[in-house]
Specification:
CATH superfamily of chain A: TmoB-like
Radius of gyration of chain B: 24 Å
Largest sheet of chain B: 2 strands, antiparallel
Oligomer: heterodimer
CATH class of chain A: Alpha Beta
Organism (chain A): Zoogloea dura
Number of helices of chain B: 24
Strand content of chain A: 25-35%
InterPro entries (chain A): TmoB-like_sf, Toluene_mOase_B
Shape of chain A: globular
Number of strands of chain B: 2
CATH architecture of chain A: Roll
Keywords (chain A): Monooxygenase, Oxidoreductase
Pfam family, one (chain A): TmoB
Strand order of the largest sheet of chain A: 2-1-4-3
Largest interface: A-B, 26 and 37 residues
CATH topology of chain A: Ubiquitin-like (UB roll)
Number of strands of chain A: 4
Structural class of chain A: alpha+beta
Helix content of chain A: 10-25%
Radius of gyration of chain A: 12 Å
Distance between the termini of chain B: 90 Å
Strand order of the largest sheet of chain B: 1-2
Protein name (chain A): Toluene monooxygenase
Distance between the termini of chain A: 33 Å
Chain lengths: 88, 501
């Protein structure tokens, strides 16, 4: 359990933002924490979509249940927060 | 006794180099301050300034300029222009004075370095006059806003901005410290005068003067036009220095300094001048879009200045040409959304009529930045004001110190340009910002951005209140919407019409 800063690059938004998460948070929880600062502020919610996390430039998303501590992400590293249709 | 014509004696009188005998040349002109480049004194004696002016001529001309600007101010002091100005225009003045006035005083110090340490006699003479120019600009741009301080606390930022840790000021200081406060005389001539002044001050001073005159603010229009006449003279200090460097096999070093300074200047103008021209200036008073000004003054004129000099266009020119239609929209959206952290009141500039103008000038605006604004507008119309303010920090670039941003919405292209250096992860807003860092990492590596400071626990408490205190934004100075959201009424009415229909 430790505070962990990440940089959120949220799909559809215009700016990178600092997001404070916990090393025990899952990628779904990281996505939710990032959404707080973009969705409903400058990005419209997309009903029926979920949010996935990937390293900048990666094709693959990190597993939804993976914890920050297991991800190998560095403090302040930029993650892309991407809208995805479930099973889509 | 007949008086000689100026040109019969000027070159001889200003050629004040001599051969030192009690000290070495390096002691007289320490390379760190003079600019090493491996060139001896006599190479610099070929420096030929295009603008030759003597001290008595300078004093006479400057006296006339001052008399003009100060008398316009005196004549219009009772005209209540400030009281009656559009709030967006007041924000233009506040942003300009805060960002510029004290920087002009600082520039006097940079000019003074050229005045003492340049090995080129002609440069020493021109920068003597340049130094006095900058003192004049500092004095005027502190004196002119002073009459408004008692009317509006934000006007106090004309005086205090440079002493604060406000984020935009950290960005401005980082840039000016880099190009003029911590460089040798020759580099100052290239980076400050040739790159920044030739390239960019036309934008701030001529472009803005045109908008000021349109807005009826003749005091401000006269002030900044008067300043620009000096800028266009002392901006020519760098050209002959570049010529000498190129002739002596130093083109690559000269080019690098131009490339670094032009990029930094561009980023600063994208946050300061871009929003002013395309969003704050009332629609009916806009002469040209920011992009059109950039194309006229930078792309057309500065491009020619570079190639005439024998230099190449900066390697990133294609990136730059693309960015002049994009970056400042993000800088505006950012400074608007984080408006409590600036010392002026940003004008949203997004009524339907203004959006039509933006769409015309920047095709695709509605599908990109417009999409973000749609959400902000809905929140304002619905009274969801908590969502119309930020709850975290934007991540800022470790070079330009400005938010790392890109195009949102349908053309989403936001990207971080990271770099790990000696175990620390740095973030940059573009390939070019990262390239600048890589040219001389130790020069920049120790600096902490506002986000780095936050993460290091230097901002307490770690919330908006702590951030405002850290940035020295006193109660009553915090920025908010320039028009107190009156612009949202038209959207409210549109919604009612739609409902009724």
């Amino acid at each position: 359990m430790a505070l962990f800063p990440l940089t959120s690059n949220f799909e559809g938004d215009f700016v990178l933002q600092l997001v404070a998460v916990d090393t025990e948070n899952t990628m779904d929880e990281v996505a939710a924490a990032a959404a707080v600062h973009s969705v409903g502020r400058r990005v419209r919610a997309r009903p029926g979509h979920i949010l996935r996390i990937r390293r900048q430039g990666a094709d693959e998303f990190l597993p939804r249940t993976m914890k920050v501590a297991e991800s190998g992400l560095k403090p302040t590293e930029t993650v892309e927060v991407i809208w995805q249709m479930p099973h889509g | 006794m007949a008086v000689l014509n100026r040109m019969d004696w000027y070159d001889l009188a200003r050629s004040t180099n001599w051969t030192p005998t009690y000290v070495t040349e390096d002691e007289l002109f320490p390379p760190q301050l003079s600019g090493a480049f491996g060139l001896p004194q006599n190479a610099w004696e070929k420096y030929d300034e295009p603008y030759k002016q003597t001290y008595p001529e300078y004093v006479k001309v400057q006296r006339d300029k001052d008399a003009g600007a100060y008398s316009v101010k005196a004549a219009l002091e009772r005209s209540r222009i400030f009281e009656n100005a559009d709030p967006g225009w007041k924000s233009v003045m506040k942003a300009h004075y805060g960002a510029i006035a004290r920087g002009e005083y600082a520039a006097a110090s940079a000019e003074a370095r050229m005045m003492r340490f340049s090995k080129a006699p002609g440069m020493r003479n021109m920068s003597t006059l340049g130094c006095m120019d900058e003192i004049r600009h500092g004095q005027m741009q502190l004196y002119f806003p002073h009459e408004h301080v008692s009317k509006d606390r934000q006007m106090d930022w004309a005086f205090k901005a440079y002493d604060t840790n406000e984020w935009a000021m950290i960005a401005a200081r980082h840039f000016f410290d880099d190009i003029m406060m911590t460089r040798d005389a020759i580099s100052v001539s290239i980076m400050l005068t040739f790159s920044f002044e030739t390239g960019f001050t036309n934008m701030q001073f001529l472009g803005l003067a045109a908008d000021a005159a349109e807005a009826g603010d003749h005091t401000f229009a006269n002030l900044i036009s008067s300043i620009q006449t000096d800028e266009s003279r002392h901006a020519q200090i760098g050209g002959p220095a570049l010529k000498i460097l190129i002739e002596n096999g130093q083109k690559a070093e000269a080019q690098k300094r131009v490339d670094i300074a032009v990029w930094g200047a561009w980023k600063l103008f994208s946050v300061l001048t871009g929003p002013i021209m395309d969003y704050y200036t009332p629609l009916e008073h806009r002469k040209q879009s920011f992009k059109e000004f950039m194309e006229e003054w930078i792309v057309a004129q500065f491009e020619r200045a570079l190639t005439d000099m024998g230099l190449e266009l900066p390697w990133y020119w294609d990136i730059f040409l693309k960015d002049i239609a994009e970056t400042h929209h993000g800088m505006h959206l950012g400074s608007y959304y984080w408006r409590p952290t600036v010392w002026w009141n940003p004008a949203a500039g997004v009524t339907p009529a203004e959006r039509d103008w933006l769409e015309e000038k920047y095709p695709g605006w509605n599908d990109t930045w417009g999409q973000c604004w749609d959400v902000i507008i809905d929140n304002v119309v619905d009274g969801n004001m908590a969502l119309a303010y930020p709850e975290t920090l934007p991540y800022v670039c470790n070079m330009c110190q400005l938010p790392i941003l890109g195009t949102p919405g349908k053309n989403w292209n936001v990207k971080d340009y990271p770099l790990e250096y000696k175990g620390r992860l740095y973030h940059f807003g573009s390939e070019v910002d990262r390239w600048v860092f890589e040219q001389e990492p130790e020069r920049y590596a120790g600096h902490l951005s506002i986000v780095d400071r936050f993460l290091a626990g230097m901002i307490q408490p770690m919330n908006l209140e702590g951030a405002l205190a850290y940035m020295n934004i006193a109660p009553g100075e915090m920025g908010d919407d320039a028009h107190n959201y009156a612009w949202a009424e038209v959207y409210r009415a549109l919604r009612e019409t739609r409902k009724a229909g």
